[in-house]
Amino acid sequence: MALAASNTTRLWTLVAKEFWRKTRRRLRAGPMYRWRYSGRTPERVLIAPPDLRLADPQIALEIYYGRYPLSGHLVETGGKSPFQINVPNHGWQKTLHGFRWLRHMRAAGTELAAANARALVSDWITMHGSHISGIAWEPGTTAKRIIAWLQHSPVVLQGAEFPFYRAFLKSLAVQIRYLRSMTREMPDGKDRLRARIALAFAALSLPAPASALRGATRNLAGELDRQILADGGHISRNPMVVLEILADLLPLRQTYANQAETPPQALIGAIDRMLPALRFFRHQDGSLARFNGMGATIHDRIATILRHDDTAGSPLLHAPHSGYERLSMGGVTVIADTGLPPPVDVSNAAHAGCLAFELSSGRQHYIVNAGIDTYGVAEFRPLARATAAHSTATINDTSSARFTHSLRVNDLLGSPLIGGPQHVQCKRIDQKGVQGFIARHDGYVPRFGFLHERELKLSSNGNVLTGRDRFQRPGNATIRNNGRDFVTVRFHVHPDVNLLQDEHDRLVLAGDQADTWVFTSSEVVPEVEESIYFAGLGGPRRSRQIVLAFKASEVAEVQWQLTRTSIAGYPENN
């Protein structure tokens, strides 16, 4: 009860803080504050930072014809400016106003693409440049737009006449001053970090006094030290955030060098930690493990970032600050969540997946978590975040962590995670020829009085993954048959894997490649049920799951095994 009261108090404190932030943002966008954003217009862009994100000239052509494939949705404008039409999809609008799509125009390299880019920027300045409100001026979106305008200023300004050149720089200066005033009060998380990155880009790319660069560098360093953990993960525990932030930090480091400025040690250290962390979360097919908000992976994006990783060794096996473990041998990769939920402030995408794991062999995934449909309908998100969507155990069909369902709260904060494990213990048990760990969480203690302990061991050159799930009361008290001790251990099977039954009634997981895995359990007969895989590149897909269902008062510990019976010749993980 005390824990629930504490979570509720913290939640409403966050609601009050966010309400106050939005009130102050409206005030700062009003006429009393707007004069603060006026000032000297820079004369030119000194340097255009590089952009590491993938570009496609074909998308530039689509945009020229009025088709905007943004944020997983295609919108046809029918000859109108995209800034004139009302599109109800929030993600599409944020992407539109973020202007990262300018990279496709730059990649096209034609005068037509440059003219179209210039026309669209001009439309935005005319329609939104002097009216600070709405999605266009959300601080996170403003930060993306500043970075994009600086990175792709060569294509926007190519062939521009002086009035547009001046209007572009004036609007850019206003946005920078606005973002500088808003950043301190932004909610915690990646948007605030990106805002600090954008201000550092601006101080390097535009004529500015040395004090402006010193201030931007100092603020960026403080944010990096706070948000990037010692093992390179992000405080949100979302692998995608590591990828997204690296895509901004690497060009920023290069921009410091190009301007003969010394980057802060916090920037160098963050990149040096984050690149190995990105490889930690990566399966051999190039995709990232589906934990805490990770959806489908565009493999080329990761390869582009990892080209900047000079270590080129095997990934680390232990990420204690981020709360993950990795087992890797014989072309087999196991990645498991063994951490506490992230802080409430940064938990909008967090999942109730404590002790969940994923198993891949070579380039084929076998056991997965459902992940999220990044661009899908919001109604699916609660299902994807629930414990049942992960390869771990649930008790009484209840998630190990709780999410808010209040419309008032969700309108302000999204849907933060407000309850979950308070203690997660994890110990590596590596031996010669064996990699493993034992972890335990107390997420079910407040409601059901159970601890969940999971042990995973990978051995025999990756041919055997042995698992043990144990359920016990604190102090090893007897588990009673009270109708609240029903356990379900789930193993979600990737939709590309065939789940069959052999002549010995064993479950066989057969991928498109040569590997075949057999699932066995000694105490409980496994069952097969329908499931859904949200993280497909084309959207959600039907899949299946192996289920061990039992009562903890009758079976307090269940042991299971996945055995590779036919092996493809895969190289070691890298």
Low-pLDDT stretches are 569-574
Mean pLDDT: 90
Tell me the number of strands: 21
Give the C-alpha Rg.
25 Å
What structural class do the secondary elements suggest?
A: alpha+beta
Helix content: 25-40%
Overall geometric form: elongated
Give the terminus-to-terminus CA distance.
Answer: 46 Å
List its salient traits:
single chain; 574 residues; alpha+beta; Beta-galactosidase, Chain A, domain 5; 3 domains; nine-stranded antiparallel sheet; eight-stranded antiparallel sheet; 17 helices; 21 strands; disordered C terminus; Heparinase
Outline the structure in words.
This protein folds into three domains: about 40-185, no CATH class; about 190-315; about 345-565, Beta-galactosidase, Chain A, domain 5, CATH 2.70.98. Helices cover about 35% and strands about 20% of the residues. It contains 17 helices and 21 strands. The longest helix is centred in the N-terminal third of the chain and has 28 residues, at about 1-30. Mean pLDDT is about 90; it is low at about 570-574.
Summary of the model, kept short:
The protein is α+β, with helices and mostly antiparallel strands and 574 residues long. It has 17 helices and 21 strands.
